[in-house]
Every structure is written in structure tokens, then in C-alpha cells.
Amino acid sequence: MAASSHPPFELVKQLQQWSTVNMCQDTIFCTIDVTDLYTMVPQIEGVLSLKKMLDQLKLKQVGGLKVETIIRLSRLVMTNNYFSYNGQFYHQVRGGAMGSPLTLTISNCYMYFFERQIVNQIRNSGGLYFRYIDDIFITINWPARHLLKQIERWNNFDENINLSANIGSTVNFLDLSIENQDGQLFTTVYQKPSYEPYYLAFNSIHPLHMKKNIPFAMLLRAIRYCSTFQSYLNEREKLRMALLLNKYPNKIIDEQFDNVLVKFGINEPLTSINYNRSRQKIIDSPIKEKLSVNYDKSIFVHFTYCSSMKTFPIKFHALWDKYFDKSPINEVIPILGTRNVDNLQRRLIHTKS
């Protein structure tokens, strides 16, 4: 199971390591979708899988809550989901509410224990198994018909879990395209047929750092995913055209593209000669995880962002340091966040309370 917050990138790293030793012309890839996982997990068994996971991790409490309390609260939430449809109220008796963080956690725990035998079988046969919630990726040097038979057998493990498989030399996993090219691993960015090149418009009323982060993050993804220099060039140009379509100035695009290389200590433009070496340096660099927030010593300040408020964060922190520097309150860390300015769309759309 993938614990990373960047699952396709984590898969790229694992595939790189696996393919150097195990990949051949007959290697097959398989993606499996768990059908309707969130609404198929049985409620009581799902809560029990959460308890089993906490016991396996030897946790007595989480965030100040005892495990017994967590399980009782989880059971309360899972068995008391109600919704209305066409004027009638219904009680959900199977699965959890879509979009609920608890449903996600319980589904993940349930799948973890379901897949143990499968994981061991694949790894003992020299294959690679990777899962992100309800999406599974397998690569192994088995004949396709043998893998299909095994998937049929796995489908008998649990009546609540139905596995729908796609097998071939080319597959797509989330936003990653994976291909076996005559025994060589080829990866690039995958875009669904419904993809449209629309990002946060540069002329929208949002802080500049949010807009700058888009070309930076998108190019970083391209380098991580694209296994050849040519596929990287293709993806970079598609990205540039999409950003220009969304009114991003060429200067901002080039600046952020350069910043990706600077961030990883690469001091020369990417070329066909240095691409593999530079890409590997980026892949091997540790991902900086988000720092956890100490809510006991933090204060959140939200303000409506507009063009006249660009310098507000700098001024706010300067005033905070000036007036609270010697005060005990200075131990509290102010965290600024922005709200979107009111607009026509927000006025026209009615949200149910």
C-alpha cells in the first residue's frame, strides 16, 4: 500500500528499481479497480479492520483519544449516515458516506487486510504490487492468462470486494502512463480523454505565489514521470501552451521552469545528454513533507484577498513582531490564509446549508 502523498511518483521510483533486475520483453502490467469500494465495505467489519490496524501498530491512543473511544465513535459515524433523495429520507446500511475522511480511512484498512495474501503471492513470484486506495498496479513476468486466473481466484476472497482488471504492455495508473517497450520501461504523463487544459487563470484574483506554484509543480511532475528526454520535451511544450492559454506570461513560465532546476541544484539546462542524470537526481531527492501544525500554539487569520491586499501578509507579520516581540503571546504563531473575493459566480450559485 502506498503511504506517500505522491502515489504515481512513488510508483515510478519502485518501478525503476524493479525493472532494472526483473523487466523483460514479456513483462506485463496490470491495473485493477476495486468496484465501488467506499459503498461496498461492510460497516461493522470496516470498523473492526480499523481496530485491527491500530492493534497491529501497537497504538493505545491517537491525538489524546483512546483506541476504545476512536472505535466507538467510528462505529457511531459509520452506522448513522442518512441522506435525502426525491423528498424521502434514507439510512445507509452498507458502506460509508462518499467524501468522508473516516470512510477513506476505514476502506484503506479493510483493503490492507484483504490484500495481504495477494501481496505475498505477487512478491514471492518476483513481481511488484502497488495500491493507492482503490487503484491497484501489478507488474510480473507471468502469462496474461495465468494472471487473469489468479484475479478470478482473488475475487472469491471477499464477497464485498470486486476486482476489475486491465492487462497489457501499456497501462495507465492515475496520471501516469506506463509502457513496456521491448523490455525497457517507458513512463510519461497520462491525461484522460476528458482532460481540458484549464488551470487557475493568471488574471484571477488570487495571491501570486498560488499562480507561480502551478507551472513549477506541473514541470516537476513532467520530469519525474517522463523517462525519456523527448517525452519530457513534448510534455513541457504541452504545458507551456496550456499556461499561455490561461494567460500566464512567458516570463513567469520560464522563471518557474528554471526554478525547478535551481531547487534541485541543477545549474544547466536539460539536454539529451544530461537529462537522465539530472532526472535521477530529482527522483532521488527526498520529498519535504508538510510540517504538522501545533493548534495549541497557532492562531489562524483569514482575510479576503484582492489586489490592494498584496502586501498585507508582510505588514501583518512586521506589526506582530513589533508589538508582541517581548510578550508571552509571541509564542503563538500566526498563520495567514486567504478567502476568495466575492464574485458573480458565488452570488449566482446557491449552496444547500
UniProtKB/TrEMBL annotation:
Using the record's annotation, list all stretches that form the Reverse transcriptase domain: 1-189
Query: Which InterPro entries would you find in this protein's record?
Result: HTH_animal, RT_dom
Q: What is this protein called?
A: Reverse transcriptase domain-containing protein
